[in-house]
Amino acid sequence: MLSSYLGSVIEYYDFLLYATASALVFNKVFFSSLDPLAGTVASLGTFTTGYLARPLGGIVFGHFGDRLGRKRMLVVTMVLMGVASTLIGLLPTYDHIGVWAPILLVVLRVLQGVAVGGEWGGAVLMSAEHATSRRGMWASFTNAGAPSGMVVSTLVLTLTSSATSEDQFLSWGWRVPFLLSVLLLVLGLFVRLKVEETPVFAEAEAARASRAAEAPPLLEVLRRHPRNLLLAVGVGFGAFVAQATLTTFLISYAVDAGFPRQTVLNALTLSSVLAVVGIVGYSALSDRIGRRPVVLAGAIAMAVVAFLLFPMVDSGSVVLLTVAVVLGQSVAHPAMYGPLAALYSEMFGTRTRYTGASLGYQISATGAGFAPVLFASMTGASGGGTVGVSVLIALACVITVVCVLVARESHRLDLTEEPQESAGAVGRSAAEGAAG
User: Fold this and answer.
1) What is the rounded CA–CA span in Å between residue 414 and residue 412?
2) CA-CA-CA-CA torsion for 102, 106, 112, 113, nearest 10 degrees?
3) By the number of CB atoms within 10 A of the CB, which of 133, 237, 333, 364 ranks highest?
4) What CA–CA distances, in Å, run from 397 to 98, 337, 405?
């Protein structure tokens, strides 16, 4: 659990540090030739490329993770993320090398996306497949790494910002958090290299009769678990759209609305700390009452909160800004996000679990990549109107609600068992739910 949590913290520190920087800094240093609105949209567009690359990471590392083991792939993903983030900190700006600056930024962001695309599935399985009880709670520590990484990245940005002037921060201060990735990489590898392979994978590997006779894990997922893959994409979609809104677009929106950057970062830090508690708490609850009720309640709550966020920010009150971010990121979102770690693990068999869980999760995560740039374009076109943004967030949550209602409950499933799949699985799931 500690290995998965620390690895996730480090991966998401790097990945979400970029999210915050894209909302506050990159439009000024990499897209300085554009007007402010176009620069913000372009900056958030580079943020999107990382999410588009995540499914590729899920496929590549999922394939080898299902064939060679979870641990090996997690070491590779951590190194890839650390190197890419450090290079972002060393990247010349637009004023120095012109158009090559945003091009190289996008390349490095793609590498970040590939790394985090492979990291999540392996880290979740390291916890879930080691767990002998309370799988939801133990696996959720990987998901808790996302807001924890946000806390660390925000704190480092805050300290750097407070220690420098505005000009110094835009000149070189923003680079410091990215360069610190090297130190985090050393810490993460020290812990991760000491962890053994999961017993579930080891047992499946020992029982495997012929590796050569097996189809690639991706083809196995598409052939044996297509319904579960589609449901996995839908179940997480609302959570990712909400996550991107709360941690990226809302930051940019609040700063543009006149709040000091530090005030917004303080609200984000508080909500991220509380989100860690919420993720673990809701996931532990899902071990008792099931994954579906918890995720369902979170999706409905998030759909409601979507219509409260922007009016509260527009009030100009620091208190209401903080309450809005806490309601979204700490109360509603953790319920729909925390249990996903165990739920995705339970939707696929051992020999395809890394690929299936990663691919479902990462395709779903593309919603988070598109949301900020789409919402920024919408508010710019409507002169600042946000009703349409709230409607889209709510619709994304509705997709989650529908998929959760269709999916079968799995919190009591033994991970050594093959999950149900076929056209008749819905009917069997309903019957099992009634029997339960």
Assistant:
1) 7
2) 150
3) 333
4) 41, 12, 12
